[in-house]
Amino acid sequence: MKRLVILGAGTAGTMVAAKLRPRLAASDWKITMIDQEPTHYYQPGFLFIPFGIYTPDDVVKPKADFIPSGVEYIEAEIDLIEAGENQVKLADGTVVEYDYLVIATGTSIRPDETPGLEGPEYGKTIHDFYTLPGAKALAEAIRFWEGGKLVLNIVEMPIKCPVAPLEFIFLADAYFQDKGLRDKVELTYVTPLDGAFTKPIAAKHLGNLLEDKGVNLEPDFYLERVDSDEKKLVSYDEREVEYDMLITIPLNMGADVIGRSGLGNEGNFVPVDSKNFLSKQFDNVFAVGDAADLPTSKAGSVAHFAVEVFTENFLRHIEGLPMLEEFDGHANCFIESGHGKGLLIDFNYDTEPLPGKYPLPGIGPFTLLRETEMNHWGKMMFKWTYWNMLLRGKPLPLPHEMLMAGKIDEEV
Amino acid sequence: MPVTTIGGREVHIDDEGFLTEYDEWSEDLAKELAANIGIPELTEDHLRVIAFLRADYKEQGETATLRRVSAVGGIPTKTLFQLFPKKPARKMSYVSGLPKPAGCI
User: Fold this and answer.
1) In contact, A150 and A243? CB cutoff 8 Å
2) Is the Cβ–Cβ distance between A366 and A358 less than 8 Å?
3) B 59-88 → A contacts, CB under 8 A
4) With contact defined as beta carbons under 8 Å apart, do A347 and A332 qualify?
5) Residue A353: closest CA among chain B residues belongs to which residue?
6) Is A310:A276 a contact under the CB 8 Å cutoff?
7) Which domain holds residue A343?
8) How many helical (H) and strand (E) elements, i.e. helices and strands, does chain B have?
9) Are residues A277 and A357 in the same domain?
10) Rounded to whole angstroms, how far apart are CA atoms A369 and A380?
11) Per-residue DSSP letter, B99
């Protein structure tokens, strides 16, 4: 009997279990999932909570509901991965041995990594929307806010769902308009990158969006510390941005256990082959989803396409066959832009987001790199797809590799 | 991608002037690139950053962030701001012949 252990029962880990269980004979393979959190969060929904579009009920379900039958589930904190010994130590001292290990421990925000960010003002004048408590506190704060300087700051890349900060700003603009408060709210987008849109073709199509919506842009801003008494951001080159309400996207890091176990890079992400997710250190260890150090977005859609490639490769790898499928870094993301409209982008490691139609060339129904109502409905329908299709490992009618069909490969 | 001549050599660049071919870079070219963005001389410290960035890119497939240069390369972020004033992330990748740090859009 061989044993596959999956660390993390979030988006990626759950999809791996759902895809592999039917493909690995129950008489030959035991599959065990380990996670310390009882709740599965629909994380794309966190964005909507501050604006009252979703309630917490929309985004939480018990993790146990999504553990495929025939898979053992252990709810426990992981103390150490001893990859040299092919075993995982749990916090209560239990040792779980494996033949193959899939690390899907994700990424989380780390406000403690920036001086001044985490303190008594966190949850009062400083907020995040990358956790459920953060999004709930922000919903309360926004509801009773009378206006002032609202500043959104991305501390450092990479972050989970790199378009979410933009969506937040777009939704804030629409929200305060609807409340009749927009003229009392100054919106500022502060980023370490050289703009809100950094890819040439996206910049050409969308470059004016912030300006059109009256949002200030502060590019190339590298946050050194937050002065929460004076309510200002201070950069390494001593620039300052004042705020009344700070929306922070703190540094994102992989799980501490990855660092403790000597399996991570400086951000606790697991170095893997970007084509097949095999650890660069161990031939029986894979990392999928946000936990891996892939040079693409940290997002559920990447995890989804990646898991399809992973599944075929894993089944070959355990038979001693070469891994033939190569992941291309494919991702696609709906981007809410406010007032019932949205954008869609589709890209991979090598191809930047291009205009066109998706998924059916020339037909859509979704339109790439342009604001449409249909894109917004795609985003709203995705919640159902996530809970009912994606996590169950049911196939979506979308190929995992990015296709150029339907895209317009234009010059800048 | 457009071709341009820098320091007497033909190189491929993108529309913002960043080199697109890893192997077209050389230290002599880096001096020309640095001069283009107001860095008159490449010191040992500059070259140490550039060497780290190029080696790291080859390994990782993307340009290191300031945090990574500091944590893995051992060069503090404050120093990067002194060496490549105002926009270190953009400037150091430009001089190193690597893509600028970018988001997905």
Assistant:
1) yes
2) yes
3) 60-62, 65-68, 71-72, 77-78, 81, 85-88
4) yes
5) B105
6) yes
7) 331-390
8) 5, 2
9) no
10) 18
11) P
Domain ranges for chain B: 26-95
What's the domain count of chain A?
Answer: 3
Reading the block at residue A146, the tokens are 């009378």
- Are the C-beta atoms of A278 and A272 separated by less than 8 Å? yes
Nearest by CB to A199, which of B62, B66, B105? B105
Quote the CA–CA distance of B64 and B60 in Å, as a whole number. Answer: 8
> What is the CATH classification number for the domain harbouring A273?
3.50.50.60
- Does A9 share its domain with A52? yes
- Token readout for A92 is 């209560």
- Does A155 lie in the same domain as A97? no
Q: How far apart are CA A127 and CA B82, in angstroms?
A: 32
Tokens 């599965």 belong to residue: A40
Same domain? For A152 and A241 the reply is: yes
- The DSSP code for B83 is H
* A410 assigned to some structural domain: no
ipTM over 0.95: no
Contact with chain A for residue B48, Cβ under 8 A: no
Give per-residue burial for A340-358: e unless 16+ CB within 10 Å, then b. Answer: ebbbbbbbbbebbbbbbbb
How far is C-alpha A318 from the chain's CA centre? 29
Whether the CB-CB separation of B63 and B101 falls below 8 Å is answered with: yes
B72-84, pLDDT tens digit by residue?
Answer: 999 999 999 999 9
| Per-residue pLDDT tens over the stretch A192-240 | 999 998 888 888 888 889 999 999 999 999 999 999 999 999 999 999 9
